[in-house]
Specification:
8-stranded mixed beta sheet; 13 strands; Rossmann fold; alpha/beta
Amino acid sequence: MAGRNVASFHHGRLGTDSFTFARLRAQARYRHAVRILLMTWDFPPETIGGVGAHVDGLSQSLAKDGHEVCIFTLAAPGVVEDQVVADVRIIRAEVDLPWLPDTDSVAFVSSGNHHLTALYAHLGSWRPDVVHAHDWRAAWAAHSLATMCGVPLITTFHSTESGRHGGNVPDGDSASIHSVESWIANTSHRVICCSRFMQREVIDGFELMPDQVQLIPNGVDVDMWAPHGEQQRNMLVLAWGRVQYEKGFQVLAQAIGRLRGRVPGIRCVIAGRGPYLPELQSQVDIEGVSDLVQLAGYVSDEELRSLLHEAGCVVIPSLYEPFGIVALESLAANAPTIVAR
């Protein structure tokens, strides 16, 4: 999936109007900058879902507000282990653990968190004022580092395992992931959600006090997606995102088949990567629409903007959608947008 430039979060000035931690308020009296350590499993250029794009945009917005921002994330091919980009320091850990089975995602992630925690040695004398985890896959490392540094822990939930399974928690990995989510939610000083829907889901699912869960909506860089010049839209139906069952792309493929004889020239591009991609290709073949539906895989921001500006419509067929940042990007591009309810 294309990396997205998320902006306008204004988590900045921690301890003034965003949070009410006494320690950060006291620090803010003496200096504007807060030292923030962001922890994420997903970050460009290896972005698969929206978490990486969110953290990328958030970190840049915080840095522009004058804060000191460091990100701990995974190594990526051809990317320097320790670098500064747009005033944000990014330190990467190699977490390749070939002796663990591919099917045991919880074991892989928990072991990988040891490597994320070890990145602390790169910081030298720099110490964070706050640690901010993004989803369960960075939970163990974020909790350990916040405890070691004696600073508040904040966790942003971009989705939940229960929500991804229609409100149920199957046995096996899903039950383990749900337990980790509940643990990190209840041990964090504050929890952030991007929508009221997610706020309710997290409060109810993890039995949190409402005042512990802060609502901070996502945002996009409108100028980045805005069209320039006259638009020539055609019969292209466009969809993109992390390719997983709950995104509903299989429903869109079925709908395209039904429109074949009714809308001459219709075609569909579904862009993105994810674990459901092989199954989605099978669904496209079963529906007999492989000549109409293209599974494009990863597309760059430039390619996505080009597709957006020619698309007759953007369809968001999600069965479960905590926020739907694709809708913001589509609307910013002035594309007709159809969403599932």
